[in-house]
Structures are given as structure tokens and as C-alpha cells.
User: Which sequence fits this backbone?
């Protein structure tokens, strides 16, 4: 009986630790793509995710793509804001990375906007994976 | 960065997008290096074929 109680307590502690680790990894992975996997010591995944998400975001900005702001009024712009926000630090540094600003009057700029949003969505997928691994899931 | 991506053609942007997304999906969903390579190639070609196919389907409406 006593052993069972100790086992339960240990399980609960382990669950709390996993939960904390999962949240730390998820937040770190959102702020800097791949950082969540660094926290979890998944080095190759961290490097690939940083290069892929960062490359896509930088390509979008280099093509003079725009980013959506928090004060968007229509639903499409609001969805765009959440997609962009997924890119983490690349969203917050967008104006520093592309100082010339967006030019969505041309098709290239419009494509850039989509590439940046896609980078944000990809990063959200990697964040979910790092949360899952942090909770004790195997991950692939 | 601007020199590298700024002059990207539309088709170049499509290739880049397809490659990057395929690699990320492969790392998210497959475990071994061989599986990841196969998945990357398969997804890259699928992106390309679907994009070109949709382009052909939409072509008559652009006239």
C-alpha cells in the first residue's frame, strides 16, 4: 500500500517536470525556431527547423512581402497576423531584416507575404512537436 | 539576403517553398535518414506537379 502511494507521488512529480519542460520547449521554439528542440537535445531537428523556417521567413521578407499587424480588422488579416506571429523572432525583427519595407503592389511582394505566413505556420508545427517530445512523447 | 532572394522568379519561389516545406515535413513525420530523404523527394515532386497542374487548369481562364 505504501509503495503504491510512493509510486503515485513519483509519477505525479515526473508528470509536473515533463509538463514544465514541454512548456519551456514550446515557448523557446516559438520565440526562436528550433530552440525548443535544442532544449530537448534534438540537435539535428533544431538546425533543420531553424534553417527552414528562417530561410522561408527571410525569403518572404527579401521578396518585399508584408506582415500583418495586431490591429487587423477583417478575419483574413487576423488569421494572417496569427500565422505571421508563429515565426517568432523573425516577425518581431521583420522591419530590421527588410528595412525597405513591404511592396505588395507587385506579385513578388504578394508571394513574399505568403512565404512569411507559411514560415509562421511551419514553426507552429515544430512548436507542437517540441511540446509533445517534452511531455515524454517519442517524436519522430 | 536581398541579392539571394530578391531576384527570385515566381517559379524559383515555388521551388524554394516546395523544398523547404518538404524537408520540414520529412523531419516532422519520419524517423530515419532514408525515410526522410524519400519523403522529401516525394513531397517535393508532389508540390511541383500539383502546382503545375493547377496552373494548366487555370490557364484558359486567364485569356
Assistant:
Amino acid at each position: 500500500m505504501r509503495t503504491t502511494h510512493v509510486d503515485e507521488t513519483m509519477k505525479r512529480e515526473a508528470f509536473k517536470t515533463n509538463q514544465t519542460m514541454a512548456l519551456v520547449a514550446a515557448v523557446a521554439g516559438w520565440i526562436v525556431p528550433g530552440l525548443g528542440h535544442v532544449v530537448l537535445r534534438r540537435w539535428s531537428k533544431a538546425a533543420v527547423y531553424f534553417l527552414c523556417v528562417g530561410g522561408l521567413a527571410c525569403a518572404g521578407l527579401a521578396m518585399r512581402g508584408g506582415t500583418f499587424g495586431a490591429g487587423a480588422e477583417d478575419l483574413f488579416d487576423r488569421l494572417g497576423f496569427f500565422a505571421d506571429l508563429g515565426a517568432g523572432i523573425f516577425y518581431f525583427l521583420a522591419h530590421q531584416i527588410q528595412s525597405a519595407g513591404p511592396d505588395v503592389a507587385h506579385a513578388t511582394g504578394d508571394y513574399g507575404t505568403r512565404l512569411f505566413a507559411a514560415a509562421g505556420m511551419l514553426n507552429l508545427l515544430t512548436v507542437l512537436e517540441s511540446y509533445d517530445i517534452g511531455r515524454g512523447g517519442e517524436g519522430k | 539576403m536581398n541579392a539571394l532572394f530578391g531576384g527570385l522568379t515566381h517559379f524559383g519561389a515555388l521551388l524554394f517553398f516546395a523544398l523547404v516545406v518538404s524537408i520540414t515535413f520529412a523531419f516532422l513525420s519520419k524517423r530515419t535518414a532514408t525515410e526522410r530523404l524519400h519523403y522529401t523527394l516525394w513531397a517535393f515532386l508532389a508540390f511541383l506537379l500539383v502546382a503545375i497542374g493547377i496552373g494548366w487548369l487555370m490557364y484558359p481562364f486567364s485569356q
User: Anything to note?
Assistant: Chain A has one domain: 2-134. The mean pLDDT of chain A is 88. The interface with chain B takes residues 44-45, 48-49, 52-53, 55-56, 58-59, 61-64, 97-98, 107-108, 111, 115, 118, 122, 125-126, 129, 140 of chain A (CB under 8 Å). Chain A has seven helices and no strands.
